Amino acid sequence: MLNTLINDCAEQYWKETAQSISKRMEARVMADLKGKEIDPAQVRRAFEERNREIQLRRMRRSLPGLLPREERPPFIDPDWDRRDDPVPAWVTLVHIAFMGWTIINAHYPAFFIPGILFFLGFAQVSAPYQNRIDLKPPLLVGFFLGGLVIHGGLQGWWIEPVLSNLSKIPLMLGATVLTAFNDNAAITFLSTLVPDFSDGMKYSVVAGAVVGGGLTVIANAPNPAGLSILKSHFDEEVSPGGILLAAALPTIIMWLIFLFL
Predict the structure, then answer these.
(1) Structure confidence at residue 2 as a pLDDT band (50, 70, 90)
(2) Are 43 and 92 found together in one domain?
(3) Is 168 within a domain?
(4) What is the pLDDT of residue 172?
(5) What is the mean pLDDT of residues 22-38?
(6) What highest taxon heads this organism's lineage (predicted)?
(7) What pLDDT sits at residue 133?
(8) What pLDDT is attached to residue 24?
(9) Which is higher by pLDDT, 56 or 255?
(10) Most exposed of 79, 90, 166, 206 (fewest Cβ within 10 Å)?
């Protein structure tokens, strides 16, 4: 009973306040248009509609609780993804089924893409049991890999003679150094442009790219994010040179392990 009374009072206050503001603004606008060949009725009607839209938008943004229930924006819980409610078994099984479908049809777009679309539809239908799906990161990765294939495929004319003249150790060392400044997927993809690459040479490229991961500062998006998290513990800045020195010894140890073991 008390909640209903409070809501009624809030709605009445909102209506009276909106009407008061609207009348003052309307009087000002009509005074500015006085003497012009414009139909006052049309101006008043257009003003009322636009004023209503502006008021509703601002109230939804700042004080949604004072709006009538039918005009309130949908509530979005900021802690929704942190809840620990149990997930029904059927939701988990459907997720596993979609994962299996994706793995089996990864190289068949005619089956893979509809599977993704059906999964998005399922996630929307079962939203009370799902976390929010953020499509931005996977789309960015997809565009990156697509650009890598398109543009990287044109680099064979100079990659092939360069890599063909390197032995295993220089190739592994070069991959280790380059992966500190380039994405390791780009390093390994470019090596596939060399025909008749032996298994030992392929191993050298992959091992070098893996070992050099600790040297990476700017090549991947998580690194700047990590720097932004850690900089408050280092006088608001993190030295790339310090990171390089700290990662040098572990990198050398791992490099020797991959080389000899």
Answers:
(1) low
(2) no
(3) yes
(4) 94
(5) 70
(6) Bacteria
(7) 86
(8) 74
(9) 255
(10) 79
Whether 50 is in a domain gets the answer yes
Domain hosting residue 189, numbered range: 155-260
pLDDT score, position 253: 94
Residue 255 lies inside a defined structural domain of this protein: yes
Total domain count for the chain? 3
Summarised one tens digit per residue, pLDDT across range 159-206 is 888 888 899 999 999 999 888 888 888 888 888 888 888 899 999 999
**In this structure, are 255 and 175 located in the same domain?**
yes
Reduced 3-state DSSP string for the chain:
CHHHHHHHHHHHHHHHHHHHHHHHHHHHHHHHHCCCCCCHHHHHHHHHHHHHHHHHHHHHHHCHHHCCHHHCCCCCCCCHHHCCCCCCHHHHHHHHHHHHHHHHCCCCHHHHHHHHHHHHHHHHHCHHHCCCCCCHHHHHHHHHHHHHHHHHCCCHHHHHHHHHCCCHHHHHHHHHHHCCCCCHHHHHHHHCCCCCCCHHHHHHHHHHHHHHHHHCCCCCCHHHHHHHHHHHHCCCCCCHHHHHHHHHHHHHHHHHHHHHC
Identify whether residues 244 and 165 lie together within a single domain.
yes
| Residue-wise pLDDT tens digits, 121-143 | 999 999 888 888 888 888 888 89
Question: 18 with 32, same domain?
Answer: yes
| 116 & 207 share domain | no
Q: For the CA atoms of the chain, what is the radius of gyration?
A: 31
The tokens describing 105, both together, are 């049809």
Q: Which of 15, 48, 71 is the last residue of a domain?
A: 71
Stronger pLDDT, 147 or 65, i.e. the higher one: 147
Q: 251 near 214, Cβ under 8 Å?
A: yes
Whether 10 contacts 66, CB under 8 Å: yes
Which residues, other chains included, contact 40 with Cβ-Cβ below 8 Å and sequence gap of 6+?
30, 33
Last residue of a domain, one of 133, 150, 167: 150
